[in-house]
C-alpha cells in the first residue's frame, strides 16, 4: 500500500532524530500536547517520551482508556467497549507484553450458544427457517442464519480487494458505493436487504448510508487476522487495564478531567485551552480523540475545508450494550438457547462466558446498534434497560422476572466519544481519509478514524504511532 508506514524503519528514523542535537525549547511549554488519553494518544505519548521529548496528555474524562471500558463489578470484567485483541494486533500485543499484562483467549467460547431467530414476536425454529415466509434471502442463502453472517459471506464471495490495504488505493474509488447498490446488483430484493442488513445492523444505520468499500476492507482485514492467529484475546482483569498501565508508566504526563475546548496555532506553536480556562502551550498538538468530539473543539485558524467537512460529517457507529444477570437459567426451562437474534429493542442477545476457570454462562449481553440504539437513547438509561428486558420477556415467557440490568453503556451519548468506531458513508473514504492523516499546520491527528490499515485498538495505535513519528520528525 503506497500510503502505509514501515513501522520498523520509521522507529529507527525517530531514534536517529532523537539522538541528533535539537534546538533549545522554551521551559514553559511542552514539545507536544496530546488531546485524548485513549490508547492512541497514550501510545503516541509513550513513543515520544521514550525519545526524550516533553509531552502532556489532556483527557476530558475522569479516567484514561477512551472507548476501552471494562465492567469490573461483573464477573470476568466484560467489555463495554473494545472487547477483542485479534491475531494481527501486533502493537497492542507488544504493549501488553511490555507492560506485563496477561492475555486470555476467548475465541472458542464466543458464539458457543448458537442464537435463536426471533422475528415479529415469535421464536422461529431453526429447522423451519429455510422455508419460512419471513425468509426473503436469495435461494443460495435461504438455509443460512439471517443477518450479518450472511452479508459477510456475500462480501467474501465478491470482494474485489486483493488485500485490506487496497481500500485506499485510487483504483478502489469505484467501489465506494452503498451496500444497497451492491446487494441490489447481485439480485437481492428490498425485503431481503432489510431483513439481513438493516436488522441488527453491522455497519451504518441502513444499507443506504454505509459504503460497501468499508465492508470489503473489513472482511479482508478480518480474514487476515484469522490467518495470522485465530484468537480473540482480552487482558486479564479487563482490557481497560492496558491504557491504565500505559498511563501509569507515563506518570504525571497524563492529566484527567481536562476537557479541551479550543486549539489555537500559529508559526510559533499551539495553545490548547481547557474548559477551566487554562492554556496549555506546546510546539505541536496531536488530536487523538474520536472523530465526533472534534466537532466540539474550536480551531483557530479554521481547519482546511475538506478536513473540516470530514470532522463535521463522518458518522460514528451507534452501539448500546446492556449487561444482564439471570437469577436462574431460564433457557433450561424453555429448552432454547440463551442467545437470540431479534428485531426488538434487545437487538442481538449473547451469552457471556467470562469465568476464568470454566465455560459456564456468567451473564447475558444485549448489543443494540444503529436506529435501535438511537431509540434506546431517547428513553434514558433506566427505561432503556427496562425496554430490553421487556423485549426478551415478550419472546421468552420463561425469562419473566428472571433478568436484571447489571451494566449499561451507550457510546453515542458519551460526551467524549459520540459513538464507537468511525463509519463511512458512500463516497467518503477517498474524500476524507487522506485528509484525516495529514497535519493541519502544527496540529496532527490520531485515533482509529485516522488509520489506513487497521481496525479497533490496533488502528488507534497505528494512528498514534504515525502522528508521533510525524511530530518527532518536525522537532
Secondary structure elements and their pairing?
Layout: H1 7-19, E1 30-35, H2 39-50, E2 55-58, H3 90-98, E3 103-105, E4 116-119, E5 122-124, H4 148-157, H5 179-185, H6 190-198, H7 212-228, E6 233-235, H8 241-250, E7 254-255, E8 260-265, E9 270-274, E10 279-287, E11 298-300, H9 305-313, E12 319-326, H10 330-334, E13 340-342, E14 348-352, E15 363-369, H11 370-379, H12 381-395, E16 403-410, H13 429-436, E17 443-445, H14 456-474
Parallel strand pairs: 1-2, 1-10, 2-7, 4-13, 8-11, 10-17
Antiparallel strand pairs: 3-6, 4-5, 8-9, 9-10, 12-15, 12-16, 13-14, 14-15
Helix pairs in contact: 1-14, 2-8, 2-14, 9-13, 11-12
Describe the overall structure:
The chain is built from 14 helices and 17 strands. With 475 residues, the chain is α/β, with parallel strands linked by helices.
